[in-house]
Design brief:
single chain; alpha+beta; 8-stranded antiparallel barrel; 42% strand; disordered N terminus
Length: 154
């Protein structure tokens, strides 16, 4: 990945222009830092690096998923879903080892808190101040989608 691409990525929309491989490299270079608190604006990265990535991210944001709200002690979160931004699909949050590279990450674990998403595990790393890249697993299988959480608007 070109360093200039990462340095130029200043917003969630900038990250949509990166390829999947570049986003994975960015995740690998990210840090755990502190578990975020408050609301992170979500951007779904369904087809990274493609022209349609921004359009799909906007459609997803308007209709399905707007982000995650972390509680003040950093141990739980809830997703913002639907056009009405309903709080749904709870998860436990903790530090753990990434399934991608075994380095530390922030784990979002739905196994004990959600019937609908009990097989889902998300992983986060901070890639810029207040900006996190997330990976998604179902079971132990990684899905080819990613997401960005931006906490800069807090």
């Amino acid at each position: 990945m070109a360093t200039t691409e990462v340095n130029a990525a200043r917003s969630d929309l900038d990250l949509l222009a990166l390829s999947g491989r570049d986003l994975d490299d960015l995740y690998r270079c990210g840090t755990v830092g502190s578990i975020p608190r408050g609301t992170g604006k979500g951007t779904a990265v369904l087809i990274p690096g493609r022209r349609a990535a921004r359009v799909l991210a906007k459609i997803t944001w308007l209709t399905a998923w707007q982000g995650k709200v972390f509680d003040e002690d950093g141990t739980k979160l809830v997703n913002l879903v639907s056009p009405l931004r309903r709080r749904a699909v709870k998860a436990q949050v903790y530090e753990g080892d990434s399934w991608l590279d075994r380095d530390r990450c922030i784990v979002i674990d739905y196994s004990k808190t959600s019937r609908i998403a009990r097989w889902v595990r998300d992983e986060l790393r901070e890639v810029a101040p207040d900006m996190f890249v997330g990976l998604v697993y179902v079971g132990r299988r990684r899905l080819p989608l990613r997401f960005v959480l931006d906490f800069s608007g807090r």
